[in-house]
Structures are given as C-alpha cells and as structure tokens.
Amino acid sequence: MPTLPMEVMSNSTVFTLSGINASRESRYVFFCIAFLYYLVIIAVNVIIIVTVALRKPLHEPMYVFLCNLCLNGLYGTSGFYPKFLYDLLSDVQEISRSGCFIQLFVIYSAVLCDFSTLTVMSYDRSVAICRPLEYHTVMTGGTVFKLTAFSWFLPIFIMFVIIVLSSSMTLCGSHIEKLYCENWAIVKMSCTSNVANNVLGYLVIVTYFGHVLFIFISYVKLIKTSLKSIENRSKFIQTCTPHFLSLINVTVASLFDMMYSRYGSRDFPQGLRHFLALEFLIVPPLLNPLIYGLKLSKVRNEVLRYMKHNDVK
C-alpha cells in the first residue's frame, strides 16, 4: 500500500525507474558496452534496409517484409537505448509521466509489430511454396502494402487503446521496478479497479496467440508441401529457417518479459532481473537481421555486392 497520501501520488508527474547499483566507473563501462551494442544494432539493420531498398533483385515481397522487420527493430530500440544511456550517466533515474507513456508505447508496439510482421511473412512463404503458380497474382504490390500496413496498424491501435486506459488511472505510486516504463507496472499502481486493463491485456494475449497459431498452421502446411519435392524442400530450408528462428527468438524474449513482469521476484539477483526485463530489447533487434543476412544467400550476396560497389567508388 502507498505510504504517501493518494492525492499527492496521483498528482505526480514523474516516475522513478529501478536504478543500477554500481559504481560510477562501472557505469561508464556499462555505458560504453551499451552504446557500442546500440551502434551495432543500428548498423546491421540499416545495412539490410538500404540493401533491400537499393538492390533490384531484392525487390520481392519476402525482402520487403524483412526490411519492415529491420525498420521495426530500429523503431523499438529507439524507445529504450537513448534513455537508458542517459540514465547510466545520471545519479537519478527518472522519467516524466508523458515520457513514460511514450516510451512504453514505442517499445511494446514494436514487440507486437514483430509478431504481426512474422505472421505476414509466414503467409508470404505459405503462398510461395504451397501455391507457387499463383504467387505473383496473390502477392501484388497492393497486397504487400496492405499486409505491411496491417503489421503496423494493429499494434499501434492496440497500444493507443492501452495508453488511453492507463493514462486515465489514478495511481498510488510512482516507482517502476524496471529500467524502462512498462504498462503492467503502472497498472499495478492503480488506486482503483483495473479490470478494463486486465481484460484488454488478455485480449491482446489471445490476439497474438492467434498470430502464433496461424504461423504454426502455416508451417504444418509448408512442411507437408515441402516433403513432396526436393525443390520445395530446398526453398523451405532456405527461406523458412530464418523465419522460424526469428519467431522463436521474439517469442522467448517476450515470454521472458511477460513472466518477469507478473511473477518476477525482488529476491532474484539484480543482474538477472535486469537481463530478464531487457532480453527482448537486446537479442531480437540484433539477431533478426543477422539471421536473415547470414542464412539467406540472396540477401548475403547482395549486401556484399553493394558494399564492394561502394568500396570501388
């Protein structure tokens, strides 16, 4: 229960975040590591995006969706790393109420967008392998645009509704046990009933469980089709393996965050708590472009050609 009067807490315009209990020297080391890691995330994602945009052989639906996945990686990490880097050099980890809601909107809409994009990519692979003769008829420019818009619109709409509900709550607290703002942490500080937020939360979980189920069903069909011919089997291994690895990557990272948010204990070592909370901001944004860049020979070869062409110039 809150130790301060409700009217004082409800008027608070600042949230405090869970700090890093380390010496200033150690913080400088963490800052350098985090800064370099963020630069690597930016670099690998930008390389994929620029290569797909400029190389005509990659102007196909699958690579457009890959470009969208990388763009989303840049979008999501921009909601965390700049503020985190600033906090590493600051004695007090605070964030304004409006800044907090903007941060959680960006971070969690990016997570949902990852799932939506991977769902769209599974549909694309399903058409390519199961209905190859209809592929260019089905996956037209208009269809690709609509699917890409869907992968952004649904997460943004969901997070907008969540933000509206959460920002209207009267809060009996101002401390968030994470290095960044999270909706569940804010909901737990509500002085009044949070039934609406809980119901919406379950609806979001069900919706994206449906996304994962769709991907699973698509993969069952893909595997059945790929077993019928060597060509389909080769296409499945080449193009679907990185997609499957990305799905596992994002799903595991999201489950870590969900389980930590609801069941995480303060008895855990601080380093472990922070890793569980940050896993989906550390691994997927870097691993996704690397998986596709290394596994898909067409992307890898075009990246190398583009870089060699620029070196010659």
Summarize the structure.
This protein has 313 residues and is mainly alpha-helical. It is built from 13 helices and 3 strands, in the order αβαααβαααβαααααα. The N terminus is likely disordered.
Number of helices: 13
Mean pLDDT: 84
Shape, per Cα inertia axes: globular
Order of helices and strands: HEHHHEHHHEHHHHHH
Major sheet details: 3 strands, mixed
Oligomer: single chain
The helix content, as a percent range, equals over 70%
Secondary-structure content class: mainly alpha
Strand order of the main beta sheet, please?
Answer: 2-1-3
User: Termini separation (Å)?
Assistant: 65 Å
Using DSSP, what is the number of strands?
A: 3
Cα Rg? 21 Å
Quote the beta fraction.
Answer: under 5%
What ranges have pLDDT less than 50 throughout 5 or more consecutive residues? 1-9
Notable traits:
313 residues; mainly alpha; 13 helices; 3 strands; globular; disordered N terminus
Describe the fold and architecture.
The protein is an all-alpha fold and 313 residues long. It contains 13 helices and 3 strands; from the N terminus they run αβαααβαααβαααααα. The chain has helices spanning 6-10, 24-54, 61-78, 81-88, 97-130, 135-138, 141-167, 183-187, 195-226, 230-263, 270-282, 284-295, 297-312, and strands at 14-17, 94-96, 175-176. The protein has a 3-stranded mixed beta sheet with strand order 2-1-3. Helix 3 (61-78) runs antiparallel to helix 5 and helix 5 packs antiparallel against helix 7. It is globular and about 60 Å long. The protein starts with 5 loop residues before the first helix and ends with a helix. The relative contact order is 0.14.
